[in-house]
Amino acid sequence: MLEQTVTIVSNERDTDSYFRLVLRAPQIAPLIQPGQFAHVRILPLKDALLRRPFSIFQVAGDTFSILYKTVGKGTDVLARMRAGEEVSVIAPLGHGFTVPKAGEEVPLLIAGGYGMAAMFLLAQRSPQKGIVFVGGRRRVDILCEQEFAAIGWEVRVATEDGSHGEKGLVTQPLLAELRNLKLKTQNSKLFACGPTPMLKAVGKLAEEFYLPAELSMDEHMCCGVGTCLACVIPVKAGAGWEYQRTCTEGPVFDARNILWEIPK
Amino acid sequence: MNLSVQIGKLRMQNPVTVASGTFGYGAEYARLIDLNLLGAVTVKGIRLNPVPGNPTPRTAEVTSGMLNAIGLQGPGVDGFIKKYWPFLRELKVPTIINIWGTTVEEYAEVARRFDALGGVGALELNVSCPNIKEGGAQFGTDCKLLSQVVTACRAATTLPLITKMSPNVPNIAPLAKAAEDAGSDALAVTNSFPAMAIDIHTRKPKLANITGGLTGPAIKPIAIKLVWEAAKAVKIPIIGMGGIQNADDAIEFLMAGATAVAVGTANFYEPQTALQVIAGIRDFMAKKNIPDVREITGSVQIPKK
To answer: In chain A, what residues touch B84 (CB-CB under 8 Å)?
Structure first.
């Protein structure tokens, strides 16, 4: 983990309200593991002080990139920044995905919206190719489909409005594949990043089909380095439970340990 | 040039520490800054037993600040000693441990435990957390209760006691005086301000706890006034805090009457802030020919009417 002021190489629109930000960070880039994040201080933001956490999308040479959606004050200002300008980053942060080893379970990746950003590095670094299931509301919410295909992954798409791929939620094609796998008694492992209801549904499917799953959890974050205890989720611990930090013990958790509600 | 200050028996190599709750237990930031350059490390509040804390969301960003309602999640005395003390004990700078309880007896028991531990720099009595149902602010807003807590802790330990004052009082002077009279060695002024924010799209409070404490630059001028008023009421030193982002902010607190300062919310977005503040105070003293930082304390010049 390093804190550095880094230069923007490019910051361009992907589709609709999604942007790709490439940062030159020669010391940080080699440290990055799949599923980790960067905590970004958008320096032109004056009265909104806190850093914003972003999944790390791609690593290339001495750069890394993030794929983000404009959702508010911070990302709106970020989207207007240009090559040559600077942001402050603390990265890489968090506990990421376990990269599958050759000959192990077939990885099945499940992404919702910009959750796709967290999956690319995992797909790229996994010696075992698998299937990536991607869901979104509309066609424009389906990101980097071609890039996954280009590295040899099968991509299955679902959109809620049916404008691209199967109509419905991403868990539908996933469920179909899991039933198919069951017939083939093939070992597989699920990896997911996306909205919490999607993660919960993936966790439930993993349990139903007796499959391991790693879920990248999204909880409102503040410091990003484990001090403030804002981003906690309830996790099984021993005979009971405890709050663990999404920024430090996570963002990626073993689905079996996640408690979706605080025990009474 | 002298930057060192004295908080009771506690000597700080410079007047800059960090605010409890914004720096974890020190180790988390050790990868980003050299903790041994600080005046002291102040850790998150500890009570006797582990505390799970509040449901999430626990923080919300607001204009020039943030709300928090963490609910003093913590490992309890034993958990702290086992997990965090071995690291803190090895630091060259003192550790200030923030303590709390739900009863006067619990405050005293926690104080006794840390007294027995040995090597602790000072204890900060948290009598001002706005986010817990029992304990915290209920002791910090009533002179009689405050006096009881400080008296009990005074009897329990010879460590320097710093009473962390609530801002949520009509007049801080009598409470500051009550803490001093009961044996507090110093005051920390101030804690967060009770506040609330609503998401207008969902019509729900932005915090699961509904209300929380406001911190960050938004509170600085209010905190400056509280330090100034407290400093007039007591002779013991004051650690000033509330929205410090840079050396100018810190110097303003010193001029209002603080002997030392604490960087709080800024740690969350800029972990280098405390070190930048120390460097900036040094620069200011060099430029203004001030040989001793203690000369700045209380040096505000109030115009005569």
So the answer is: none
Which pLDDT tens digit goes with each residue over B96-120?
999 999 999 999 999 999 999 999 9
- Is the same domain home to A258 and A224? yes
Strand ranges, E, within chain B: 5-7, 10-12, 16-18, 41-46, 59-62, 65-68, 95-99, 122-126, 161-164, 186-189, 193-196, 198-199, 204-205, 211-215, 238-241, 260-263
pLDDT of residue A186: 65
User: Contacts of residue A219 in chain B, CB cutoff 8 Å?
Assistant: 56-57
A187 — pLDDT class (breaks 50, 70, 90)? confident
**Residues B214, B216, B218, B223: is their CA dihedral positive or negative?**
positive
Q: Which of B44, B52, B64 sits opposite A49 (nearest CB)?
A: B64
Among B35, B129, B226, B254, which one carries the catalytic annotation? B129
- In CATH, what number is assigned to the domain containing residue A26? 2.40.30.10
* Overall average pLDDT of the A106-129 stretch: 95
Name which of A66-80, A173-187, B34-48, B217-231 the model is least confident about: A173-187
Helices B172-181 and B143-156 pack at an angle, to 10 degrees, of: 30
The per-residue pLDDT for B22 is: 97
Quote the CA–CA distance of A172 and A190 in Å, as a whole number.
Answer: 14
The question of whether B153 is a catalytic residue gets the answer no
Best of B59, B62, B132, B214 to substitute, by most chain A Cβ atoms within 10 angstroms, is B59
Domain that holds residue A153: 97-213
pLDDT at A102 over 90: no
The H-assigned helical ranges of B39-171 are 76-83, 85-89, 104-117, 137-140, 143-156
The number of angstroms, rounded, from the C-alpha of B43 to the middle of its chain's C-alpha atoms is 9
Contact criterion met (CB < 8 Å) for A51 and B53: no
Q: Are residues A116 and A209 in the same domain?
A: yes
- Does the beta carbon of A219 lie under 8 angstroms from any beta carbon of chain B? yes
Q: Which of B73, B269, B273, B276 to mutate to test the interface with A (most CBs of A within 10 A)?
A: B269
All structural domains of chain B, each given as residue ranges with its CATH number in brackets, are 5-50+73-193+217-295 (3.20.20.70)
Are A168 and A112 contained in the same domain? yes
Residues of B with CB under 8 A from a CB of A: 21-24, 28-29, 31-32, 44, 52-53, 55-61, 63-66, 68, 70, 73, 216-217, 265-272
Confidence of residue A235 (pLDDT cuts 50, 70, 90): very high
- Looking at the fold, whether A174 and A102 belong to one and the same domain comes out as yes
Q: What is the pLDDT of residue A166?
A: 95
Where residue A245 sits, what CATH number does that domain have?
A: 2.10.240
Q: Tell me which residue in B44, B59, B272 faces A220 most closely, judged by beta carbons.
A: B59
* Span B73-91, average pLDDT: 97
What's the CA angle centered on A52, arms A250 and B58, to 5 degrees?
65
